[in-house]
Amino acid sequence: MTPHSSLPKVGILAVQGDFAAHAEMLQSLGAETVEVRTVADLESCEALVLPGGESTTQLQFLQEEGLFEAIKKFVAKQNVVFGTCAGAILLANDVQHPAQESLGLMDMTVLRNGYGRQLASDVFFGKSKLQPTPMEMVFIRAPVIEKIGPGVEVLAEYGGKPVLVQKGNLLAATFHPELTSDATVHRHFLDMLKANAAEREAVSAQQ
Ligand code: GLN
Fold first, then answer.
1. In this predicted model, what pLDDT tens digit does every residue of 37-77 receive, in sequence order?
2. Is-cis flag, bond preceding 98, omega within 30?
3. 111 lines ligand 1 (CB under 6 A)
4. Taking a C-beta distance cutoff of 8 angstroms, is the pair 160, 181 a contact?
5. Cα(32)–Cα(12) distance, integer angstroms
6. Residues near 185 by Cβ (< 8 Å), separated by ≥ 6?
7. What is the rounded distance in angstroms from the CA atom of residue 43 to the CA atom of residue 18?
8. Is the CB–ligand 1 distance for residue 101 below 6 Å?
């Protein structure tokens, strides 16, 4: 048995962007991953990663493939979803700079490419609740989380802005934890899956 053999299968939207880096990191932590390109792929999974890349291209693909509605249903069924950078933009319920349609699942306002040129693409260290030492953060034309709604927890921040946030089964990072050797954020994501699976089991045992 692998250490995480009881974990649900993790789907990774594999249209464009750095999906392979997420797969590699999750596999190194013992999780099984599936590349998601169709609704049927998504239905074989119990958790999903929306990777970085270009949110406009990804959004168009989701709409064309029926995945846009399928992901909303997937979240309504209490599955865990993790969005990084472009993926965080897709999860937000308010996208600006420029305005763009999104899945509208996470109560936050994001500004695309919001850090301007200084922070266009670079590595920084910021404070995180997940570890005592500063967390390494790779920003690539990152969005700024400008506002968060009630109940959205800030797990890490950089430059006075939230950069890793969670609400229930949803996790969003404006940086790229899959591009460092620090697996803390992915480990947290797998812990969310374990907690979610345990909760489901408890509920079905009561029924
Ligand atoms: N700037 C990209 C967008 O707006 C996101 C960049 C990234 O995912 N690294 O979609």
1. 999 999 999 899 999 999 999 999 999 999 999 999 999 99
2. yes
3. no
4. no
5. 11
6. 130, 135, 164, 171, 173, 177
7. 22
8. no
Report d(CA 205, CA 125) in Å as an integer: 43
Which residues are part of the catalytic machinery? 85, 176, 178
User: Residue 119 is encoded by which pair of tokens?
Assistant: 């922070």
Residue 99, pLDDT above cutoff 80:
yes
Chain centroid to Cα 200, Å, comes to 21
Residue that is written with structure tokens 């999903």 in the block: 48
**Among 113, 137, 180, which is best to mutate for testing ligand 1, by the most ligand atoms less than 8 A from CB?**
113
| DSSP for residue 40 | H
Q: How far apart are CA 70 and CA 60, in angstroms?
A: 14
First to last CA, the chain: 29
SS3 56: helix
CB atoms within 10 A of CB 117: 8
Q: Evaluate: CB of 141 within 6 angstroms of ligand 1.
A: yes
Residue 77 amino acid letter: K
The encoded tokens of residue 41 equal 């792929």
User: Which neighbouring-strand residues pair with 64?
Assistant: none
